[in-house]
Amino acid sequence: MPMPHRTFAEVAKRRLVGKEGSERVATIRALLGELPGYRNGPYADLRKWLDGELDRTRTRAKVLHRDSIQVRREGAAQIALVGPPNAGKSSLLQALSDIQIKTGDYAFTTLRPVPALTRIGGVLVQLVEIPGLIEGARDDRGGGRALLGVLRNADAIVYCRAANEPASSLDVVRREVAAAGIEKPAVVALTKADELGDAGGEDLRRACDDACVDSTDAQVVVLAVSVLDDESLDDLREAIWNLTGLIRVHPRRDGVVEQQEPFALAAGATVADLADRVHHELGVSCSGARVWGPSARFDGQRVGRSHVLSDGDVVEVIAR
Ligand SMILES: Nc1nc2c(ncn2[C@@H]2O[C@H](COP(=O)(O)OP(=O)(O)OP(=O)(O)O)[C@@H](O)[C@H]2O)c(=O)[nH]1
Ligand SMILES: [Mg+2]
Is 110 touching ligand 1 by the criterion CB < 6 Å? Predict the structure, then answer.
């Protein structure tokens, strides 16, 4: 004796409440299995409804999946490249790292955030191109909410715009970022600087001035870059490093500067912090260090545990 169809409908709805994805699919399948196999009438209608639910659940699962575009963090910091379509973000990403990525002279070449690692002064930093931030991103246009979510996770932003485009070409992106309440240390990269030609110097100066007109921009460093000019790329790397707020410290042991990657430490880190990072026990037993570099008054200065280190220091930790 099958359950009356009205009761079945009630039970089915109750069992589906709050379920999504594979759990919901499994429940719908189970319900379909329990449903009497009439070809017509109320039970057949219930079957049709459940089949529809199955399709809708699968589609939703796909959409949810497509929205989850989070980027796994790697390296000492994560820096987002944002800007209008065709600004040269992918080209920069490629020039600064080893990745191969599609670039193209049209908008929306890149459709999802793309991460790549770059080495700055020996430390790996993750760059992420965030494409397609368009007007209305805050209302999820163009999948904007997920893209802004990735941006929110980043430590700093490189705003990219072509040097020969007006400063206003960044306005849309900056408005969307501001509307999303995202505030991060930032630089502006004026890309494709090589395209300005011989009279470029003057254009560039104007472009740099334009880039700073917005009052909130007072502190923002503006750099002209071209993927054809290695020096400009090195300057950009250094500007990116400054955004991270981290310092690079090179360990030295028994009089030899170790060839490993330098340690990336938060600004304000002390000798004790470095020792702890090398090894927890060294953090405990460290009594001080010898320091060469910006934070030392002279080469090999003997300092205590609480001595504050600077970017570029070479440090030999002394254990008790
Ligand atoms: N001359 C010159 N062209 C560049 C430079 N950087 C990028 N381009 C060109 O600009 C176009 C757009 O470059 P992409 O790197 O694809 O731009 P994008 O910002 O990633 O574009 P979307 O992913 O579509 O948002 C391509 O034709 C590049 O070859 C540069 O430094 N100099
Ligand atoms: Mg791109």
Answer: yes
